[in-house]
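Incident log entry.

Two folding requests arrived from the same account within the same minute. Monitoring flagged them as a possible duplicate submission, but the sequences differ. Recording both here for audit purposes.

Request one:
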Amino acid sequence: MISSPPRPTTLADLDARAREIFRDIVETYLETGEPVGSRTLSKRGIGLSPASIRNTMADLASLGLLDAPHLSAGRTPTHVGLRLFVDGLLEIGDLGREEKAEIDARLAAAGSDLSSALSEASLLLSGLAGGAGLVTTPTRESPVKHVEFVLIGPGQILVVLVFDDGQVENRLVQMPVGLTPSQLQESTNFLNLRLKGKTLSEAVAQAVEDARHAEATLDKVAASLIEAGFAEWSGDDPMAGRKLIVRGRANLLANSQAAGDLERVRILFDDLERKRDLIHVLDAAREASAVKLFIGAENPLFSMSGSALVAAPYMDSQRRVLGALGVIGPTRLNYARVIPMVDYTAKVVGRLIERRGLNLTE
């Protein structure tokens, strides 16, 4: 008989004493970056003897929440422990008025150039949060201007998309059996009526959906042509034209003390060079449409460096996600401060792009 995997530990599994000790260990570790021992907790006024604290620490370690990185008696939270702390015990407030004012002023001073504004956002995040700042540039998609189906040979049709910025995308599809010239024109008219002004991703989604539900205005052969032409649109690589702006790598070195820390930073520097992979990670924040946190091995990219990433999408006034930004650093990031900072910066960047009409195709 195959046994089921162990159930993840929750706060409900901890009694009041274990919860208090766990919270103190994590908070002390986030402050100092050092393993936390029973005597340290006892001196903080926890009201228990070092022996009682050690017993509870051993129980927390058996649950996978604490680890002993060295031979000393000190403990550090595991990635699982940090996740439990962030999700259940971390108290996240709002940014202070001065920090908000600094973010507002620095981004406002970046001018009307999108690249400068995003670079400044990455730089200010690295400085305020003490890690490296990351920003992805927006997906370069111009609205669709015209759609055309062109018969180019026996059994083959060319799907052509013309965009407002003059770009042209096309792909070949097999002609549905029984398709007539009038149905070909009908399909073209159907799409031009519905897709003009939409980006490629919006056009692909709507074309397929509309064709499937247009029995009253579109016959089955024409609908099958539209679905074939858009359901598996190849187009350009969706990563083409996407850039990752990284600022503040030196902060990662400044926060490293032990040789083990320096080795993890070296690995993280290698990770930062894998920009395509990092863009994919930041895109997860785009899809969530909210602040997203990755801690260590929760994402394969950070499994070796043991890093943490706090990321958030930036959007326009219609809540269309344009890109993402965030802070990467050691797992002992000051989450209570960094999370609202990343969230607020993303909102300011979105408003800046909307208000100034910054050119997203530059």
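Request two (distinct sequence, not a duplicate):
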Amino acid sequence: MAIAKAERLMNLALCLMNTRRPLSKKELRESIEAYREAWQNSSEDAFNRMFERDKDDLRELGLVIDVDESALDGELGYLARPDRNRLPEIALDAEEAAALTLAARVWQQAKMSGAASGALQKLRAAGIPFGEAAEGRTALEPRIPAREAAFEPLLTAARDRRPVTFEYRKAGAAAVEQRSVEPWALECWRGHWYLAGYDRDRGDARVFRLSRITGKVKAKGGAFLGTVPEHVDVRATVAKFAGEGATATATVRVRRGAGFPLRTKALQSTRVDEGWDELEIPYGNGLGADLAEFGPDVLVLGPEELRADVVDRLRAVAGFEGAGA
């Protein structure tokens, strides 16, 4: 069935691109065997539905199909003009080619890996420098894996502007939460994939780490309720929620020999005794979740709301583990 549809789409595209005048649906039906069979064996409606689906599929693939309402005595005429469907000459330098190669490798664990590899092969055949043919190559080869099961459905939902629901476990939380999100964009930051979007339940923009999404991502019907920003800077949003660039500070005590990620962020470090150091670190959204992951190796001295947040998270984890025992 898949091969038959691909052949039908190819035949329709060839008919529309190799005509000097618009063709009516009747002419296309007589020219393409699959349409003629649908008309003869089923009905006129069956042919019309098949034609409309195929026309929409070709447009989705990028073919520009013009509709002429006056050329055929009241009948609609269709054609794909060569000047509107001809790609300009592709010219990429080594850096641009390397960026495309890296983008294609994002799909190396995904279903689109075959399509991405095929696209690179076509560009290589056109003389574009890729891989070993690119200038300035080194022994280091950057890779951006996309192993999370949520990656593909979220990318598709963001592209199609479709709301989604999924279960999400926040850092340090004992239980998962159901989230309803309008996905905007995905981006890889410090080895992790993040989704930025509009959280319908909270009525505000949020970021989600894909590795913390559990279960399946389910697409929902309907349009977006929130306004999609013209430019979505996922990294800046993640950094904001991670405390990057925060103007406030927090004071914590860290056990000697532990908490090295916190020590790299410290604005000031003071030795308290043989067992503890006192750090002053940037305080922003998400810091409580980060501190809770260090468990008994970190004590929060202030501010009080941060201390309460960390204590609540640790109690939730202890309660969850107790229930499991």
